[in-house]
Amino acid sequence: MGKWDWQVFLQDTGGGRTYLEWLMSAWGWTLSVAVLSLIVALVVGSLMGILRTTPNKWLVLIGECWTELFRNVPLLVQIFLWYHVIPSIFLVLRGVPSIVLVVFALGFFTSARIAEQVKAGIQALPKGQRYAGLAMGLTLTQTYRYVLLPMAFRIVIPPLTSESMNIVKNSSVAFAVSIAELTMFAMQAQEETSRGIEVYLAVTGLYFVSAFAINRVALLIENRVQVPGMIGGGK
Amino acid sequence: MMTALDFTFLNWNVVSNFILKGLIFSVQLTLVAMIGGIALGTALALMRLSGKKWLVMPAAFYVNTLRSIPLVMVILWFFLLIPLLIGRPMGAEVSAIITFTIFEAAYYSEIMRAGIQSVPKGQVSAGYAVGMTYKLPVLLTQTIILFQDTSLVYAIGAYDLLKGFEVAGKNFNRPVETYLTAAVVYFIICFSLSMLVRQLQKKIAIIR
Predict the structure, then answer these.
(1) Coil, helix or strand at residue A18
(2) A73:B187 CB<8 A
(3) B116: Cβ contacts below 8 Å, ≥ 6 apart
(4) Which of A157, B68, B183, B208 has the smallest set of CB atoms within 10 Å of its CB?
(5) B156, B80 in Cβ contact below 8 A?
(6) pLDDT tens-digit map of A157-193
(7) With b meaning 16 or more CB within 10 Å and e meaning fewer, what string describes A132-167?
(8) What is the largest CA-CA distance in chain B?
(9) How far away is chain B from the Cα of A176, in angstroms, using its nearest Cα?
(10) Do the chains contact at B69 and A187, CB–CB below 8 Å?
(11) How far does chain A reach from its first CA to its final CA, in angstroms?
């Protein structure tokens, strides 16, 4: 294999840009997929997690079915379902760009895990808080909005942080449906340049940096929303 | 608007020719990576708990590095590096087995570490057994995740359960039906296993 050859990144890909430029655009795709999926996952996952703690057994059932469904099928298979199966069953979705399909696939997959965390966070609160809210005349929705969720979400920040880091890693599966993200870049650039080690090192490094950045942002949020005297407070 | 689905081509012949081979490999990969991963993971956990810096550092480096890289990239790395190290090409299937064992060890080791740490000091020998039964559901849950993750050998073209369905779908020009069936098969396997884990958890909760 010989010596390092980092100049490979300055070579032209044949498409009018260097491998470095391609690498950067791939990084952009990875971050876009990860961030958009995270938004979907947080919204849907919180909703499903909340449903699972409501007193209505039908809502609980919906939340549980959702979680089991999206937790027990491999992410790659789910991505193939979104990409190959859903558009051919629902023809309206034919023109939807694959990035959107991947964002929903990864978002829903992760929402099952987030639902689990949110549920655990709400159940970790003393039952008295719920009863106190209801006894004061708040509706169930108000009790969730003003009493339960503000504390529950603070409790689940650490597990949500690791889910957010997982989503960056899991976005790599998008290579399978030809999204031009980092892993796809790694595979193609490796083949074209035969400089696999340099290419993989650069890509792996960018995954590290991305996950680390998300970790820092989450820590910042955790510190900002900290309630003095409560869990994790006064570090 | 919907197109009609047709599953009639999925007869026993197709299943035994295309899918069974893949299923056997997926299960094999899961079992080898589980056993190897738990063995290696336990060794790593003991290294990290040994208190000796020259053991703690490499084990921590191993675990933290592998846990921060996407599995697909780890699969690609090994597929690239193993042939360079041994000087000859290696089949995707063997490469996958080596990769998953080494990769899963990092995850199992964290479970084993937590398991060993949860045992109060002074009851070490009796406690190890208790700690391990307590961790059994967690180890099994990790194995379910492992089984799902084996589908990622797609990246190097190994012939696993998903690949079996994909090849069958291509041969009969019925990709929609085969992907759908693949999802159902994975769901049934993983859901049944997770139900089993839940039963086990209840039992252990009673014992404790």
Answers:
(1) strand
(2) yes
(3) B45, B46, B49, B128, B131
(4) B208
(5) no
(6) 888 988 999 999 999 999 999 899 999 999 999 988 8
(7) ebeeeebeeeebbeebbbebbbbbbbebbbebbbbb
(8) 68
(9) 8
(10) no
(11) 50
Residue B48 near residue B191 (C-beta atoms within 8 A)? no
**Which stretches in chain A have pLDDT values below 70?**
1-2, 229-235
Q: Distance (Å) from the C-alpha of residue A207 to the closest C-alpha of chain B?
A: 7
Is B70 in Cβ contact with A183 (below 8 Å)?
Answer: yes
Burial class (CB in 10 A: 0-12, 13-18, 19+), A234: exposed
The token duo for B56 is 């703690």
- Tens-digit pLDDT string for chain B (208 aa): 456 777 777 778 878 888 999 999 999 999 999 999 999 999 999 999 988 999 999 999 999 899 989 999 999 999 999 998 988 888 999 999 999 999 999 999 999 988 887 776 666 666 666 666 778 888 899 999 999 999 999 999 999 999 999 999 888 888 898 999 999 999 999 999 999 999 988 887 776 6
Classify A54 as helix, strand or coil.
Answer: coil
Beta bridge partners of residue A12, listed in sequence order:
A18
State whether A208 and B69 contact (CB < 8 Å).
yes
A176 touches B179 (CB < 8 A): no
DSSP three-state, residue A12: strand
Whether residue A176 lies within 8 A of chain B, CB to CB, comes out as yes
- Please give the pLDDT value at position B121: 64
Interface check for A145 against chain B (CB to CB < 8 A): the answer is: no
| A window 195-224, beta carbon within 8 A of B | 196-197, 200, 203-204, 207-208, 211
- Phi and psi angles of residue A18, each rounded to the nearest 5 degrees, phi first: -85, 165
Q: What is the ipTM of this complex?
A: 0.89
Contact call for A169 and B71, based on CB within 8 A: yes
CB contacts of A78 in chain B (<8 Å) are 183
